[in-house]
Amino acid sequence: MTVDRPNIGVAIFPGSNCDADSLHGLELAGANAIPVWHDHPETGSLDGMMIPGGFSYGDYLRTGAIAQFSTVMDLIRQMADDGRPVLGVCNGFQILLETGLLPGGMLRNRDMKFICRTVQIRLESTGNSFSNQNASGDTMRIPIAHGEGNYYADPKTLAEMNSNGQVAFRYCDNGIVGASTNPNGSSESIAGVTNAAGNVLGMMPHPERALEPQLGSTDGLGIMRSMVESCISSRAAINV
Amino acid sequence: MNAKVVVSLKDGILDPEGQAVASALGRMGFDEVKDVRIGKVIEIELEDGIADAEVRVKQMCEQILSNPVIEKFHIQTEQS
Amino acid sequence: MNAKVVVSLKDGILDPEGQAVASALGRMGFDEVKDVRIGKVIEIELEDGIADAEVRVKQMCEQILSNPVIEKFHIQTEQS
Amino acid sequence: MSNTGATAPLYEELGLTASEYQMILETLGREPTQVELAMYSVMWSEHCGYKHSRSMLGRFPTEGEKVLQGPGENAGVIDVGDGWAVAFKMESHNHPSAVEPFQGAATGVGGIVRDIIAMGARPIALLDSLRFGSLESPRVQHLFEEAVAGIGGYGNCIGVPTVGGELFFDPSYEGNCLVNAMCIGLLRADQLTSAAAAGVGNPVILFGSRTGRDGIGGASVLASQEFKEGDEEKRPSVQVGDPFTEKLLIEASLELLDKELLVALQDLGAAGLTSSAAEMASLGGMGIELDVAAVPLRESGMEPWEVMISESQERMLAVVTPEKVAAVTEVCEKWGLTATQVGVLIEDSEFVINDGSDEVGRIPVLSLTDDCPKYQPESKKPDYIEASVPSVATVFSSDSVEDELLDLLGSPNIASKRSVWDQYDHMVMTNTTVLPGHDAAVIRLKGTDRGLAMTSDCNSRYVYLDPLKGGMIAVAEAARNVSATGATPAAITDCLNFGNPEKPEIYWQFKNAIEGISQACEAFGVPVVSGNVSFYNESNGAAIYPTPTIGMVGTLDDVTKTCESGFRSDGDRIFLVGDTLSELGGSEYASHVHNIVEGPIPSLDLGVAKATCDMVRSAVSSGVLKSAHDLSEGGLAIAVAESCVNGAIGAKIDLSSSGQELSIVESLFSETQSRFLVSTSQSDGDGFLKLAEEFGIRVAEIGEVGGDAMQIGSAVELPLDVVCNTYQQGIQKWIQKT
Ligand SMILES: Nc1ncnc2c1ncn2[C@@H]1O[C@H](COP(=O)(O)OP(=O)(O)O)[C@@H](O)[C@H]1O
Ligand SMILES: [Mg+2]
Known about the structure:
The complex is a heterotetramer, with 1 copy of chain A (240 residues), 2 copies of chain B (80 residues) and 1 copy of chain D (738 residues). Chain A has 240 residues and is of the alpha/beta class. Chain A has helices at residues 19-28, 72-82, 91-99, 155-164, 221-239; strands at 7-12, 32-37, 48-51, 86-89, 105-107, 115-123, 139-146, 150-152, 167-172, 190-194, 200-203. Chain A has a single domain (7-238), classed as 3-Layer(aba) Sandwich (Rossmann fold). In chain A, the strands form 2 sheets. Chain A has a 9-stranded mixed β-sheet, sandwiched between helices. In chain A, strands 5-8 form a two-stranded antiparallel ribbon. The radius of gyration of chain A is 16 Å and the shape is globular. Chain B has one domain (2-78): Phosphoribosylformylglycinamidine synthase subunit PurS (Mth169, Chain: A, 2-Layer Sandwich), CATH 3.30.1280. Chain B has a 3-stranded antiparallel β-sheet. In chain B, 39% of the residues are buried. Chain D folds into 3 domains: 63-192 and 441-562, CATH 3.30.1330.10; 194-370, Alpha-Beta Complex (Phosphoribosyl-aminoimidazole Synthetase, Chain A, domain 2); 406-415 and 563-738, Phosphoribosyl-aminoimidazole Synthetase, Chain A, domain 2 (Alpha-Beta Complex), CATH 3.90.650.10. In chain D, 35% of the residues lie in helices and 23% in strands. Chain D is built from 26 helices and 28 strands. In chain D, the strands form 5 sheets. A 7-stranded mixed β-sheet of chain D has the order 8-10-7-11-9-12-13. In chain D, strands 23-25-22-26-24-27-28 form a 7-stranded mixed β-sheet, with helices on both faces. In chain D, strand 2 (76-81) and strand 3 (84-92) form a beta hairpin. Chain D is globular. Strand 2 (33-46) of chain B pairs antiparallel with strand 2 (33-46) of chain C. The complex binds adenosine-5'-diphosphate and magnesium ion. Magnesium ion binds next to loops of chain D.
């Protein structure tokens, strides 16, 4: 364990299936990645947390609905309150919505079909813990793989999020956002959102699948490395 | 004691599943279909003699069976 | 005219979703829950003045809304 | 069950013949009990007993230096180097999918995944091989869409990428679709697990889902008379899958094996507890005693025979030593699974069934497994083969090849299958380095330089027209697909889907296809390590095209040295590897454009087939190729179009220099075997030609990559976006047509 590698936990629920990919990805991005089983939450030494994709509890009832009651969520709430970075990808995003750590809800994809493919997203806001390696307006090629990524928030919430800079990513094509580039019908083509403080990010695309040239794209590195750096700086801030 | 909970999307939220079914029905010649909305029925079998069953079921609905951001619920209880 | 169709799994058929919800409720302290089964409510809005609405809805149920191999359905129609 | 059999004996309603029943009487020396009769009826079914196929399956070459486990266990296993091994198998779920396509296909995936877990391997990839009737029929569209959703629903949830497969539409599958699923798993070679029971007195533990009345519809006649009418509803013949529990089962099983807590492991598939317990005992040469009263049930009032043959999904059976029972239970509990001791191993080779303190059955183990009745059916060459005209090529002359090409490119069997694999998470596990849409998918093995290529193939129209050669071609095509990525074919699994084997013509197809597959395997040096037989694929007395699906796995020493099918850059040189002959018999062109299904099908020289693959593989690994694509259905024209679409770049082809006297239709659409379409940079082209010469393979330079049109001589000039749209949207267009 080197000092400059922050400890980032990966919460594992029964039914998580991107946990191994997330652990691998966080290591590549410069973290010590630590598996955290849903009912034995590691306490203390974590600088950040990633909630991976998958089908926690089979995604029965609603995606993320059952997982929100796991013990590890108490730890995650605490970390979010303390200002540590928390990243929820795909099912992780859905869980964060169910717990209320992020605004909005998730519906079935517009076409009712699961979609797995590489899409382009545009970085919409830099005021959060996941964007210090990128500039606003940057586009990234990152895979999505979900059946329920049709993000919904009511108009009032959307307006607030827009004015707070809480919309992190939108689906696009060469930087242009439009109905034809929205894969799942999400409100305003939203692909990821943060909390008001900017330390909790939920996103449908999988940055951990875009870290190595062999897999076709390395555009996820910016997001993951930003998280790693923010973990280091938030640790410094909290420990002062 | 049984309780039946119907959970459905709030009015005004587009229902992708309902739309898919509506258009499938249209394609199959059921032209009289104007709209379809789809919800869930959750049938809960409870131990007999629970005093505050209605209250408890309401708590279940609020805590987990529905998500108030997108859904509404409706409870029917029936003595069996 | 509206019709409400409830589609649920036949009795002996495994309902994994119901099981998952039942055990989640148990973990959350709702010990009084003995069993949960989950089905769908399909609300169909029909053009007004369809003569044989009940017959038509039954056809929809048989042809697409349910699979008789594993599911059963129940129709309620109501004049709106 | 209807009452039509009021006079028929019970055993007959259960699918046993009079002579089979006689065998049971002789074996037991008495009348069977209800449980025993139920157990024999499921174990002696075609599905479990391989009654009509076993004698032929011995023909397959099954040995090789890399084979760690051949046929006989839950899956075959080969050594792939660096201490790693790969387990794989393919299985059919045709009949359940025809009745309930979503659940049928989903539980098909679940079943094959458990076979892989039983070998001690972590499932790392899935393939699905699908065949339906004509896509114009709304019923077929429904089956197709639901089956795909079911496969995705299951595979996506358990987090195993579905990286490839097949999709073929033909009226012969109208009443009997085929849903075959293949799973590949990874394990340390020294952790290979067996299903063979060992250790008298060792407890037998059932873990996973509870047992319900799933999948016992067919045996309902055994229900005692008190059961009222309508009760058969309680014995559904269709199982519902629970992928969430399967995911837990994967993790729990691997953790149990990792902690060395198990003596033997076996999945519960067809015939449930009966077959898994019998197989474990039989493989271990011992006996087993089960108590049905100990089995955790989902429903009340289940009778012993119901418990014994239930096909409830997501269950595994393990043999453990007594001192490890507690640790096993603990691991299962961690994963939220019930684990219950349901029996114990005994010395005598007997299968004893108790219901609490009552003995309700006692059967010699081997009479359920190895000594199941075997038949050697009659075989006769079908008339339709004799009637086939010698050559159909002369029929085709066309003054609109361009239109025909577009028609073919957008047809259901040729058009892109993207709308299918888009619904499958093919990237989870972050190992898929060649995604679906090329010839074979490639998976890297993290922590090593190695990779695996995998594909499933069978041109069943060929097999129908000529089972021997069609069987060979299925293997040869798989080898081409694997070789195009740069991988070396290592071994195959198969799923032999045929009609009713009791019909001599069907058995003849079966025998010849096996012979063809075997000869090709011998020529390529690839053993058959696992497989599955599905007979009685018929509706209204008409059989499907004989469809022996081949699933092949290939190995790459350096996973960075692979090739994809798309053209890459302006100015690259395009080569056609292999000769083109006038071979339109049985082709996609003849069938789709002219509605003619007649032989002779293309010839196949196995020596040339192998040498060509060897040459292309060597070219890929030496790095001279920028793209490689094998030629199959639709011939050269379709291969060129696919390489353009997959590379999003045009090409200019000139066939005048190929030196062969063929009509334009033959040049474009002939399906001559052992051909590839490859491209190189300007400078590497000569090196490639030299390599080909060393291997003695004929290669013709036929054009250049570039531009935004696909041009073939003066006959075809199509804008790239027209080619792309036609190919990409073909399937959706057919669905919307109706
Ligand atoms: N049912 C399916 N599921 C997943 N991928 C499929 C399916 N059908 C076809 N594919 C993929 O589409 C591509 C083309 O398939 P196919 O035309 O059968 O290739 P080939 O002719 O080279 O065998 C392959 O990458 C294949 O894996
Ligand atoms: Mg190919």
